[in-house]
Amino acid sequence: MPQGELSEPQVSNRDGVEGALMGAYSIMNGNVSGTWGNYASAPSQWVFGEMASDNAHKGSELTDQTPMNMIENFTSISTNDNLSTQWQVYFEGVLRCNNTLKLLANDQAGPKEISAERAKGNSGRS
Fold it and tell me: Hey, what's the torsion of the CAs at 104, 108, 112, 114, to 10 degrees?
């Protein structure tokens, strides 16, 4: 098990499921590793939404944030780290949601520390 990762028995309880849910939502700020800031998938979608649609202009020099200039000008290449980081964040979000749903399903199949009403709210089912 990787350092810093909790085992399933450690989070197979109400607090664990609620914590996993908060972790799933927390990825929406676009910061998966703590080092890239909010450009990857920030709710504003400034790079991939606003710049790419001509609603915003990055400005500055052509040599400043060249990968962003490529996105703005539709000239991105496969090694553009803005694109790979965006997908990393999105797939991390999917992974976190799936893990939360797995923990919730395990709880509901066993001790049911989480009420059925709360479980429906967590799983998105009505």
Answer: 40
